[in-house]
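To: structure subgroup
Subject: Chain for Friday's discussion

All,

I'm putting the inputs and outputs inline so they're searchable in the archive.
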Amino acid sequence: MFKNFKIILFLVLLIEIALFIMIGELIGVFFTLLFVVLSMIVGFILLKKLSAKTMQQMQAMMQKGQLPSIDFFHHSMLTIASILLIVPGFFTDLIAILLFIPKTRPIISKLFSKINPTRKKQTKQKEDIIEGEYWKNNDDNSKHLE
């Protein structure tokens, strides 16, 4: 069930390691680490602000009797983007930046819905019906039931 997730996680880790090596050689170890720490700080700040704002909007919508829909989707994507900024790495930062751009959110959402490991496939199931008769034994008297 989680086979796709494991493969994707492994590939992301390999990409992150390769990018760390390449960018570290280009700009140096100090600036590479500085960039990672700064993106983590920005991610924490955004996560704090966005999560509070999302909760307030959800509470307001529920008090009005409305179900959170598209707004909740966009705020969820922004929250995920903030979390991705906190995760050390350049590839996850790139995905986070793409999630902050409103036009790219539906595209990324469709991409991840295709590879979602928890997505259930609808299959037709046949019902097994077994017809028969049985007898209930009470002491020595056997009665036939239909």
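Points worth raising on Friday:
The mean pLDDT is 80.
The chain is about 65% helix and 5% strand.

D.
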